[in-house]
Design a protein that fits this description.
The protein folds into four domains: about 130 residues, Butyryl-Coa Dehydrogenase, subunit A, domain 1; about 130 residues, Butyryl-CoA Dehydrogenase, subunit A, domain 2 (Beta Barrel); about 150 residues, Butyryl-CoA Dehydrogenase, subunit A, domain 3 (Up-down Bundle), CATH 1.20.140; about 140 residues, no CATH class. Helix content is about 55%, strand content about 10%. A hairpin with a 5-residue loop joins strand 8 and strand 9. It has 18 helices and 14 strands. By secondary structure, the protein is of the alpha+beta class. The relative contact order is 0.08. The two termini are about 50 Å apart. The strands form four sheets. Strands 3, 4, 5, 6, 7, 10, 11 and 12 form an eight-stranded mixed β-sheet that branches. Strands 1-2 form a two-stranded antiparallel ribbon. The model has no long low-confidence stretch (mean pLDDT about 95).
Length: about 600
């Protein structure tokens, strides 16, 4: 069973998104289709050969801390080194930085192999890439010279240290403090919790990006600054030498992603933790949002791929498992569960690839207005890209367990681990409830709703392309729900400024469900349109190829006809200002 079937990858990259057209842009002009595919093939080989084999082993044999150092399976180090040696940490970066200048769309395809194979080991290099990107964009030339080259080779790894024991998503409440010194560095004092990859022996150094407050700065989030805090301080030759005052207080043992160290870190326990300011004081949260938003998109795609892996396994199982004289794939309820998995995961996957293309367009499109509108649309969609796949990826894995029946919840089969790994994603990088609040509280209204206007424009273009029998059916179901969206948004906008505010904020997840379901229906309409066109224009297709496209059409129709209408009660709830939740009193529980 392939981690990411070529038919699906090709469809997403080259048919739905026309990724080949990126080759005409200056940034990617030194590449060709062969180099794109060679990179994807390399990712598949490394993921299959050195990531996949120890996925279950790392789940059973978690990292251990003996009070002095962290130990873990040797396989993790082998996989980390293979990833770094192939140049994947730096692949998105400029040639002059040692990177490959590859499109985000292609790198998303590559990451799909690693996330499907082994999400916990993948976390180490993925965090490193994201931390390096923040340093590249916002740190001084001195800090870049000290840390960036070795981060991009994987010799140094990276983390982001935001959460504190008393302050989870409420970053305004952090108390980690950075005291300036006459030597130009800061002394960091505080504690961080749930820091993924915060301690290990995989790399020569670990570069923590730490949020802290400088005494005398503004209150709340406006007073947060960002610091580079290395595990080892560098000597005059730029080599890691003296251990910085960063202490591992302990490892945290999680439901899933067990191969990734989750750490409690203490900074400055002995008063000698050196940190180096990134950019300007008090702008740390603004800088860190780059890494957080990258991570949110990554969480969404990871959730899609873990869900997709479970779907593939349960599909193969259902084809082989005989019950009642026929494979259970032919039983109606099993077919329903498989179809839901396919609809959830391939819809989520398509959304994440669309987001990756927006990243490429905002950075490399020839037209400035398209760059701007792509950036605005990505900003609007980021809460959806994070939340919907991480909500429905675990639901898909839950269905995979059900398809396997009694075998599904045993550790002899992989689907229970997939569910456990994926169950972390609705919480990772801002809970889905926080994404919903961000969506209704900020994202809808930015730039005078310019992003909503761009969404409407693109949606209408794709509705106009629906010419085939199935795509026309899909469009006919979508349009009544799309037409209700402006009214719902208007109600929310009014309620946020009157006595209904508490109701609206409490019901934010209802709007997330409405908006996300319409977006996923749009993604499925796009896939159905492409698949129908292929069936019409290519009569030479093999039976297997025809079946692939027919499956796309049927799944899109299934999702739009059976799942999209489920949002109507949420629409009604918001329009009537339902307060049955917000009126609940704490003492009544």
């Amino acid at each position: 069973m392939s981690l990411f079937p070529q038919s699906e990858l090709h469809f997403q990259l080259y048919e739905c998104l026309d990724t080949e057209s990126l080759l005409s842009r200056a940034r990617f002009s030194e590449h060709n289709l062969d180099t794109f595919n060679a990179v994807l093939d390399t990712a598949e080989k490394i993921a299959t050969d050195v990531f996949l084999p120890h996925n279950a082993k790392a789940d059973h044999a978690e990292p251990q801390f003996d009070g002095h150092k962290v130990s873990m399976l040797e396989d993790v180090k082998v996989a980390y080194d293979a990833f770094c040696d192939a140049g994947f940490v730096a692949a998105r970066f400029n040639f002059e930085d040692g990177g490959m200048q590859l499109p985000e769309t292609i790198m998303t395809g590559c990451s799909g192999f690693f996330m499907a194979a082994n999400p916990s080991t993948t976390a180490y290099p993925f965090l490193t890439t994201a931390a390096a990107n923040v340093i590249k964009h916002f740190a001084s030339e001195t800090l870049q010279a000290q840390f960036l080259p070795k981060m991009l080779t994987g010799q140094y790894s990276g983390t982001m240290a935001l959460t504190e024991p008393h302050a989870g998503s409420g970053l305004a409440d952090i108390t980690t403090t950075a005291y300036p010194t006459e030597q130009g560095h800061y002394l960091i004092k505080g504690s961080k919790l749930y820091i993924s990859g915060g301690e290990h022996e995989l790399s020569e150094n670990i570069i923590h990006l730490v949020l802290a407050k400088i005494p005398g700065g503004p209150a709340g989030v406006k007073g947060i600054s960002l610091f580079v805090v290395p595990k080892f301080r560098l000597n005059n030759d730029g080599q890691p030498e003296q251990r910085n005052d960063v202490t591992l207080a302990g490892l945290i043992h999680k439901l899933g992603y067990r191969g990734t160290t989750s750490t409690a870190l203490t900074f400055g326990e002995n008063g000698d933790c050196h940190g180096y300011l990134v950019g300007e004081p008090h702008k740390g949260l603004q800088y860190m949002f780059m890494m957080m938003n990258e991570a949110r998109v990554g969480v969404g795609f990871g959730a899609a791929m873990i869900g997709y892996r479970g779907f593939q396994y349960s599909l193969d199982y259902a084809k082989d498992r005989i019950q009642g004289g026929k494979p259970i794939v032919e039983h109606g309820d099993v077919k329903r569960m498989l179809l839901l998995q396919k609809a959830y995961t391939e819809g989520a996957m398509n959304l994440c690839f669309y987001g990756a293309r927006l990243v490429d367009d905002m950075h490399t499109h020839d037209d400035e207005s398209t760059r701007q509108s792509s950036a605005q649309l990505l900003d609007l969609l980021t809460p959806i890209i994070k939340a919907w796949p991480s909500e429905y990826g675990p639901k898909s894995n839950d269905l995979a367990i059900q398809v396997l029946g009694g075998a599904g919840y045993t550790r002899e089969y992989p689907v229970e681990q997939l569910w456990r790994d994926n169950r972390l994603n609705p919480i990772h990088e801002g809970t889905n409830g926080i994404q919903a609040l961000d969506l209704i509280g900020r994202k809808l209204w930015q730039n005078n709703q310019a992003a909503l206007g761009e969404l409407q424009r693109r949606f209408q273009l794709d509705l106009a392309k629906a010419k085939g029998h199935v795509s026309v059916q899909c469009a006919g179901v979508i349009m009544p729900f799309l037409s209700q969206l402006p009214q719902v948004i208007a109600v929310i906008g009014e309620d946020l400024h009157n006595e209904q505010q508490a109701n609206t904020l409490t019901n934010a997840m209802s709007f997330m469900e409405i908006f996300s379901s319409i977006i996923i229906s749009w993604m499925w309409l796009r896939q159905v349109t492409v698949a129908e066109k292929a069936l019409v224009e290519h009569p030479e297709l093999t039976l297997e190829q025809q079946a692939f496209y027919q499956g796309k059409c049927q799944t899109g129709l299934f999702y739009i006809q059976t799942q999209l209408p489920l949002v109507q009660p949420h629409i009604d709830l918001l329009i009537r200002h339902d307060d049955s939740c917000s009126s609940m009193q704490t003492s009544w529980f």
